[in-house]
Design a protein that fits this description.
The protein is an alpha/beta fold and about 270 residues long. The protein is built from 11 helices and 8 strands. It starts with 12 loop residues before the first strand and ends with a helix.
């Protein structure tokens, strides 16, 4: 069992955490283990992490939550990236956690990178799963592709909302969120954020495509990480796995759990 002197041990808790004009559905396994905060993909839910959590085991304190209008969380007037970063603070404060290890997939990797960069004294480290690659992939043509994609799928997503499989956001709001992450991904935007990270970070990188990508587009985006690694010794690729972007949490949970163990050990000065 890992010791954690940064926050008190407590019982398992599931409930709603009020923040701004909304409330987030949070699950905290409690206990004295190192706190790990799981940051979801853009339109995913906390349930996506169950295999990683099982792989990591019970010696850790697992904190998961649904982002605004996703899963069991409530709607909001603000679905901006900055709101997503602020929500990490709201969840940690509500659960009485001072310092935590972050793991984020896809959109959550960007959130984790920004939070770790801004909070070096509170981040034990971060594992970024197939996201937060600095690359200028958004141009006017791509923006139009994104808007067209969400308009095309917008008619049936409301039918799935009762299942919790789709966010309670309009097609336009989903497109805006996707386009905003394109801006945040730009090398001149994300590069300085990653350069500023002073805690251990490991990337777990998928292979192949993601929803909406074409050809080798996704591999070219991932290659944007090379220059960051050359500049910042705190950042490394922990694993390159065979799964594609959408399947990585399900198929490569052992690699993600191993990266978390490595970062936690580095954070404790064991390496």
């Amino acid at each position: 069992m890992m010791e954690n002197s940064t926050s008190p041990a407590g019982p398992k808790w599931t409930g709603m955490v009020p923040v701004d004009d909304t409330a987030l559905a949070v699950t905290d396994t409690g206990g004295p283990g190192t706190p790990v905060v799981y940051l979801n993909g853009q339109f995913a839910t906390q349930g996506y992490w169950r295999r990683v959590i099982a792989e990591l085991g019970t010696g850790w304190r697992h904190i998961t939550y649904d982002e605004r209008a996703r899963g069991k969380s409530k709607r909001s007037a603000d679905y901006s990236f900055e709101a997503a970063v602020r929500d990490v603070d709201a969840v940690l404060a509500a659960r009485g956690v001072d310092r935590a290890l972050l793991v984020g997939w896809s959109y959550g990797a960007f959130v984790g990178a920004h939070w770790a960069s801004r909070n070096p004294e509170r981040a034990l480290g971060a594992v970024l799963v197939d996201g937060a690659f600095p690359y200028d992939w958004l141009d006017e043509a791509m923006e139009q592709r994104i808007r067209k994609l969400f308009r095309r799928t917008g008619w049936f997503t409301p039918l799935l909302r009762p299942t919790g499989l789709t966010p309670r956001m309009t097609a336009e709001q989903q497109a805006d969120s996707n386009i905003e992450i394109g801006v945040i991904s730009r090398e001149r935007e994300l590069g300085p954020v990653l350069d500023n990270i002073t805690v251990p970070v490991r990337y777990v990188v998928a292979s192949g495509t993601s929803f909406g990508s074409r050809g080798d587009e996704q591999e070219r985006i991932r290659a944007g990480l090379d220059a960051v690694i050359a500049r910042n010794a705190n950042i490394r690729i922990g694993a390159k796995v065979a799964s594609n972007h959408g399947a990585i949490l399900r198929k490569d949970s052992p690699a993600i759990a191993e990266a978390l163990r490595e970062v936690a050990a580095l954070g404790r000065g064991e390496h």
